[in-house]
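Re: duplicated header lines in exported C-alpha cells

Our pipeline writes sequence and C-alpha cells for each protein into one text file. With two proteins the header for the second block appears twice in some exports. Here is an export where it did not happen, for reference. First protein block:
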Amino acid sequence: MTAPIRLLLCQDDDDDAALIVARLRRDGLDVAYERVQTAEAVESALRLHPPDVVISDYSMPVLTAEEVLRLLHDAALDIPFILVSGQIDDERAAALMRVGAHDFVRKDRLTRLTPVVQRELREAEVRRQRRQAQTALSESEQRFRLFAENAPDVIFRYRLLPRAEVEYFSPAALVILGCHPDELNGDPERVLSMVDPDDRRSLEESWRSPTGEPLVVRWRRADGTVVWTEQRAVGIRDGRGRLLAVQGILRDVTAQVNARHERELLQQQLRQAERLESLGQLAGGVAHDFNNLLAVILGHAELALDALPAGTPGRADLECIQQAAERGGALIRQLLVFSRLEPSQPEVLDLNAVIEETGHLLRPTLGEDIEFVTLLDPGLPPVRIDRSKLEQILLNVLVNSRAAMPQGGRLTIATANVEVPEAGADHGPRVRLSISDTGCGMPPEVAERAFEPFFTTKEQGQGTGLGLSTAYGTVKDTGGRISLTSEPGSGTTVRIDLPTAGQAAPAPPNQAASPSRGGDATVLLVEDNDGVRGLVRRMLSRSGYRVIGATAPAEALWITDAIDARIDALLTDVVMPGMSGLELAGLIRRKRPTMPVLLMSGSLPGGVGLPPRTSFIRKPFTRATLLDCLRDAVGNAT
C-alpha cells in the first residue's frame, strides 16, 4: 500500500481549498493535506512535516506566493510548487516560475491540476534519485580519495580509450617511486621510462591485457635506486566488452626481494662452504697418501744419487725424478693449506705495510697498461697471520686479476675497518682487505667454484687451480672470511675479513736448537707404510743409527715394554690406523718420560700443538733434513 501524497495547501478561501482537494481525489490521487494561511504556519509545516507538493494561491490576506517560494528556498527543500490562482495574469505567473514555481494552473481550469501534480512529483522523484546518486558518488569518491591518499601502496589508473593516458597515481608514488603524482599523470611514456628496460615489455603487456595476476616490476628512481614493486591490475570494460582502462596497485616489495636474495646468497655460501669442507677433507686424505709416495720416490732417488759419481749415465734422470718429486711436494703443501692442515706460524702484522711491500715488488710485473691503485685505511689495527701465507694470498689474487685484464685496466687494493654483526659466532671488529679489478669478470657458475682446488679456467699449463683455494684455507685458518663477487664484463672483487690481533690464536712456540749428540743413537721407527719405513731405515742405518722398526703403534708399545735396551728417540708417523703418532708418544712417555719424539707427516691436524721434547718433519724430506731434525731432537733431550 502506497502512502498518500502529502499536500501543503496555501489557501485562504474555504471553497477554493475544497475544490482543489476534491479535484485531486476525483482524479484518483490519495491526498493528505495541511492547509496554512500564514508564513509562520508554512515555515512550521516545512520544518515538521515536509510535504510532497505545495499548491498556493497567488495572493492571500497575510501570505503571498513569493513568500512561500522564499520559505521553500530558505529551507533548502526541492518540493514542487504549483501556483493555482484566478487573479494573476500570464506575465506575473511567468515571473514566479522564473524564481522557483514549477507550473501555473488557473482556478477555472482545475482539470489540468492533477496531470501537473503527477508530472511534478515524477520529476521531483527523478531529481531526488539523481541527488542520492550524486551524494553516493561523492561519498564514494571521498572514501576512495581518503583511502588512496593514505594507502602505503601506489594506486593507479591507466586509460586506453579513446587514447592512452595515465589518469591517476596516488601520493604514495612520491615515497615509493620518488616522483610526484602530477609528474606521472598524462603521457604514459613518462611512467614507462622509469621502468627497468628488462621489465618494460611485461608491464606494457599487463596494461594491454590485465589478468589480475601479480607482476614484479623494477623501477629506477631519479637517484639511481632500484625499487621492486608487485603490481596487481584489473581491466575496466564498457557494456560492449571493450577494455577502457586498467587500474590497480603497486606494492613496494624491495625489502622482501632483498631479503630473499640475501637468504639465497647465504644458502649458496653455506652450500659452497660445505662443498669446500668436503673437498678439503678429501684433499687432506689424498695429500697424506701422496706424501708417502713422494717420500719414497724422493728418498730412493737421493740414495741412488749418493751411490752414483758425477757424470755417471743415468744420474741426470735421477735428478729429474728428484726435482719432480720436490715440485710434487710443493703442490701437496698447497693442498694442505686449502685443507687447513698446513702448520702456520702466525705473527702480528701491519696489513698495510705488507700490502705496500708486496705491491712494490709486483708493480713492475703488472705492466704499463695496468693502473695500480691502493686505498689503505691508516687506522687499521694489526692482524695475526702467517706472513708468508698472506704474501702468497696477495700474489695469487693479484696474478689472477692481472690475467683477467689482458687489454689493461685498473687493479685496486683497499683496506678498511668493518664490524661483523652480532649474529654468528665470528662477530666483532674485522680488518677488510679488498682486491678489485676491471677485467672480464666471471659468470655465476664459475664464481661459485672459484675456491675449489684444481678448478681453473686458464689453459692447460698456465695454472694449477690452487691459488684461491689455498687463500681460502689460510683465511679460514685465521678465523676470517673470504668471498668473491663477479659479473661478466664488470670485473671481480675478492674480500677478505681478518680478525684483529686480539682475536686471533697465539703463535705456536718455537723450539730452540741444542747441541747434537751425533748419529750413534738407537731409534724406534714406527711407520705403517712399508716403502717409507724401509727408506727411512736405510737413511738412518747409513748414517750410523741403530733402527728398531715397527709397522703399527701396537707393535711399538710391545717393543718398549719387552725391550729393556736403551731407546734414544721415537721417530713415528702421525696418521696411522688405530692410533695416531701423538697418542703413541704419550703412551710411551708414561714409562720413558724423557724420550724425545720426532713426528713425520705431510701435515699436522689443524689446531694441534707439539708437546715438549717433540719435533716435526714434513714429508717428503731429504736424508739431510731427516738427519738434522733427528740430531736436534736427540740433542734437545740431553
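Second protein block, exported in the same file:
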Amino acid sequence: MPELPEVETVKETLKKVILGSRITSVDIYYGNIIKTSKEEFVKSIKNQVIEDISRRGKYLVFHLSDYYLVSHLRMEGKYFIKRDEEVDNHEHIVFNLDDGRTVRYHDVRKFGTMELVSKEITINEHLSHIGPEPFSEKFNADYLMNLNSKKQLKPFLLDQSVVAGIGNIYVNEICFLAKLHPERITNTLKIQDFESIVVETRNILRKAINLGGTTIKSYTSSLGVTGRFQNELLVHGKNGGCPNCKQPILKIKVGGRGTYYCKNCQK
C-alpha cells in the first residue's frame, strides 16, 4: 500500500506536469471507485482546472476550480499521464485534459477510492478524522503520551487518527530504530521513548521521500519510476541477522500485520 512517502512522491510528480490543465471530460470504466454520484461526478468535473495538488496522510487531493478531488490509492492505485495509447484493462478512470493528454487512474485490485468534495468546506474539515501530519508541530512526544493508549505500539502507530500516513513498512522500521518492541503496550512507554518515536519517524519518512518511496511489489511514481528506499530497509522483509547485534530478525503477526523485529534490540 502506498504510504506517506509514496503519495508525496506521486503528488510532486503530478504537480510538475498537470497543474493548470483543464479537465474537459472523464471516462469511467469501473464506477465503484467513485464514492459520490457517478452522474454528478461526470457533470461537475467537466471544465474544472487543476489548480494545485496536495497530500493529507495517505490521501491525494486535487484542488480544482470549485471542488476537491480526494483520492485514496489503497493497495495498488497509480496515476499515469498518457496521450493516444489504448486504455489498459486496469485503467479505470480516465480524465481527458484540454491539451490532448489524459490522466489515468490505474488499479489492479480496484480498492482505490475517489470523491468530489465541494470547496464550501476545507479539506481539513472533510478529513478531520485523520491525525496530525508527522512533520507538524502537533506530532510530538507530549501529544503521543497524553493519548494514554492501551494499544500495542504497532497498532497505535498504524492508527490514522493518531498520526497520518504511516503504514506497515515504516512502522516496522520506526520501532526498530527507536529500540521498542512492536507489542509493547503504549501507555507503559516513557516520554523519552515517545521522543525517539517522533525523531525516527521524521528521519525515516524524510529519507524515504528523498528516495522516491519504497517499491516492494508494484509501486511506481506517475512517471513509472520505482522508489529506492527498499534498499535502505533494516528489518522489514528481512530474514537474516539484525544489522546491530546479528541476532535473527523475527517475523510475527501484530494486529494482523506482518511484523519484523529484533528480540534482542527491541524491548
